[in-house]
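Subject: Protein record for review, amino acid sequence with backbone structure tokens
How to read it: Take the token row as a discrete description of the fold.
Enclosed: The protein record, placed directly beneath this head.
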Amino acid sequence: MVGRFGSGNNQRHCERDVAIQNFGQLIKRRNGKAGKGEAVKKVNFETLTDYYIGLIGIKPNDFWRQTWRENGLIAEHYHNNINLQWEQTRYLAAMIHNVQCQKKSQMLKPEQLFELPVDKKRQIERAKPKSTREQMEAFELKAKQMTNKKTLK
């Protein structure tokens, strides 16, 4: 059978479709848009090439020579740069607004202008405890030992 990707590779073609579908589900779950039991739109090679070559800007030869992990890292780098540019824009807009304010109560923080996808991740990270209870108790014990020094006679 002659297919789109060559002749006689039916089994590899099916495995590739399953891998692409799993890749799409992983991306959706990673972005928080789909749960484990939720159906995800099937991803095929055309949508992947449109994403990596069209949106991200990877050259076609580089796309086919690199591994999925390398392509994923390039896409992550692209999205990080876009987020940084939007953060800079938001920060500058807040600075321009705050320069014109008469009262301190009128000033805005950059996060109050508009929300970015990075903001939700940062809130989750800030909500996590910095240390465990055992670490805290060990630190308190060490602090008490340092403050309760005995004088030598």
Notes: The CA atoms of residues 14 and 20 lie 10 Å apart.
